[in-house]
Amino acid sequence: MTPGQAHDRAAALRGLLARYDHAYHVLDNPTVPDAEYDRLFLELRQIETDFPEVRTADSPTQRVGGAPRSELRAVRHDVPMLSIYTETDKSEQGARAFDARVRKALGLSSEDAPVEYAVELKFDGLAIGLRYENGVLVRAATRGDGETGEDVTHNVRTIRQIPLRLSGAAPALIEVRGEIYMRRDDFEKLNQAQREAGAKSFVNPRNTAAGAVRQLDPAIAARRPLSFFAYGLGARAGWSVPTSHSTMLDAFAAFGFPVCAHRRVVNGPDGLIAFHAEIEAMRNSLPYDIDGVVYKVNSLALQEQLGFVSREPRWAVAHKYPAQEEITRLTGIEVQVGRTGAITPVARLEPVFVGGVTVTNATLHNQGEIDRKDVRIGDWVIVRRAGDVIPEVVGPVLERRSEELARFDLLASFPTCPVCGSHVVRVEGEAVARCTGGLFCPAQRKQALIHFASRKAMDIEGLGDKLIEQLVDNAIVKTPVDLYRLGVLGLAGLERMAEKSAGNVVAAIAKSRATSLQRFIYALGIRNVGESTARDLARHFGSLDALMAADAETLLAVTDVGPVVAKCIVDFFAEGHNREVIEQLRAAGVDWPEHAPAQHLEGPLSGKTLVITGTLPGLSRDEARAMIEAAGGKVSGSVSKKTDFVVAGEAAGSKLDKAQQLGVSILDEAALRAMLEPNAQNSLF
Ligand code: NAD
Questions:
Q1: pTM of the predicted model, to two decimals?
Q2: 3-62: what fold?
Q3: Catalytic: 122?
Q4: Helix, strand or coil for residue 56?
């Protein structure tokens, strides 16, 4: 590199880094992953080392962070809040180089004893200074540009882990510094909720925490689960400061601050290296993100002697680990089919080393997420892999999108299930697209069979989850029809299956052939068709053929069936694979008494809607419901003007109050029985 080239490259890097700094520090919305920022930062630092004349005062290597946000009140730090020098060499040589620098600066020779270091984690959150006067929290400030931060006291007060008052004897003044962060599980929960609400998901815990702390409205911060670790000291008065960093942290813990337990005092570079390796091995199992470890000279007197360079202390260094977010190219999108038929788009990536492994695919969650993030095939994307969470595409690097790329449309690209070929649908208002071949699709086999055999469905005793898994894993059973072809011998060969219990299961399967239409409809596992909808459908249509022939409009006439349920039913029966399995089940002898459709039913409660509330003395809820329905009545969950009777038992609550308000007739169990009595003998069922 010539001096001219160095000058030009340095200027370009300064411009780029300034832009990234603004997005990250001011907007809490980084446009590139930290790893990319760090590469450029280190490149600039190297150029400035090789060509000192190109260094400018406004270079990011000479300054800390970003300008404070103008809407928040500015706070001048009594003691500047600095950065930490990042050791570029991620090998153990990095630790040795730091120790060598410290020894040199302290004028130690090889004969002198090893330097004592306090070692701790480098939490990936945001730095905060907490000022306590006479033991009371009076102000919380961000780092800002190191000289001036932002007053975020209103938000920090909402963080439970931060004491509002110190325990024990408090100094006149103490500013405790530390990191506000978001635990990974809290972050995942928050994002899950965002996705379910159809809102944009957050990028990573670090930026979510920073964004929350810098809100103007404390109510928003209060809803974000934030945590805190103390690790440093700012201004103080009236406090006899401990002599070492480690004992100072002990004192912080005694004041009531959370101090991370993964810290230690070690001697010399070997101690640093051992700690680095030990933490790297447990990094994935930590409940929060770290991007490295920090080594600090333990003696505060020596720290003072070492002092500072422009933006960082000489007595500390950050020794980083491989990045948990990286950039790579999105080369394609495929889909995976889950146990319930959910179709999850999966990004195919150019292999990238992230979070300690090489990643070639990552989840994109669903179409809505793809739209909100605007991820397109051919984009450069940020991939995150932290902890044991599956790798995820965080978003595109828009500034690298140079050509027009097509938006991805899951249903257009995957009209049919890649596993079974059934058609794929996405119900209006639902985030997830699904395979409709519930009875047939190999991906959904276990789930479908477990549901089919369950108590409220075909009620096959002894055919539990474990056994179904074995049957499927051994390819003995593929669809429910195969159950009716099972012999004792086929079952008895399975692990932990005695001949006697195999016989019982086969008998239970045989017995389940004689069922009811309601149970059979429920057993099909149609999405959104639960037990009570199955009952309504059975009553309304009277036969399976009538139900299978119904279009959405006809279905909407059924009580409690809305457009979403109607579509699920139509989609299910529109899938030929499902019809085939149903025909095979009938051919295998599965049968039920057909009865006339509901409109012809006559009973003492025909056309009446009842609500049951409280505990009845002699009937369970299910029994009462069955009696009412047998008499032609309908049981509803809530009281309205359309309710004809409320059946109230012991400890009836708000439903009874509502019935009284609306003037609905109220029955006790005896009155209900009396209404049904005359017709008990000639019940239609
Ligand atoms: P830094 O964040 O790497 O190190 C200093 C910070 O470390 C402190 O302010 C403190 O908050 C934190 N820290 C965590 N644990 C600590 C401990 N035990 N003791 C002391 N401090 C601890 O350095 P920086 O200069 O503040 O910021 C640079 C970081 O920000 C880099 O990770 C960089 O990648 C990222 N960044 C990213 C972008 C982007 O666009 N992605 C832009 C700018 C900066």
A1: 0.78
A2: Helix Hairpins (1.10.287)
A3: yes
A4: coil
